[in-house]
Structures are given as structure tokens and as C-alpha cells.
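agent> Task received from the user: take the single chain below, predict its 3D structure, and emit C-alpha cells. No templates, no multimer pairing.
agent> Plan: (1) validate residues, (2) run structure prediction, (3) serialize to C-alpha cells, (4) report one or two observations.
agent> Step 1 OK, no nonstandard residues flagged.
tool_call: predict_structure(input=
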Amino acid sequence: MFSLLKLIIWLAGVLVIAYFALPYFGYEMNTHYWNDRKAVCQEKLDQCRKDLIQGGIQGAKEKCDFQCVDPKLLINKSSTSTTKD
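)
tool_result: status=success, residues=85
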């Protein structure tokens, strides 16, 4: 139990440090990503549900793409770089 709590605290610390260190290196977090992708993911899941009902599990395996999150879109290179050369 203690090790799980310790891991969560370490992860939170790393995330906070990364959030403040990224702009220094010229990157920015896409904070609107989750709101933008939510509708697209919901559409994909609805289509997969229809495919599952119509074609069974085999049809869903062929047509469903469950990767809704693209990590490359979470952190973007900012247009104005503040790095020091």
C-alpha cells in the first residue's frame, strides 16, 4: 500500500515538473486535446457497437480502431521558441 502511494506521488511530481519545464524547451501542452477528441472517440465507439451487433466479434475486430488517443498531439512544439542557444 505504501509503495503504491509512493509511486503515485512520484508520478504526480514528475508530471508537475514536466508541465513547467516543457515551455522552457519550446513545447506546449495541448490542454484542449481531451475535449476535442472526446466527440471523435465517441463516434468511433458508436460505430464499433453497431459493427459488433451486426457482424459479431469478428466484424468488430476487422473494422474497429480503438486507438483514440494520439500522444503526438498531446505535446506540441510551440511556435515561439524560448530556448537559449
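agent> Step 4: summary for the user.
Residues 13 and 32 are 22 Å apart (CA to CA).
agent> Done.
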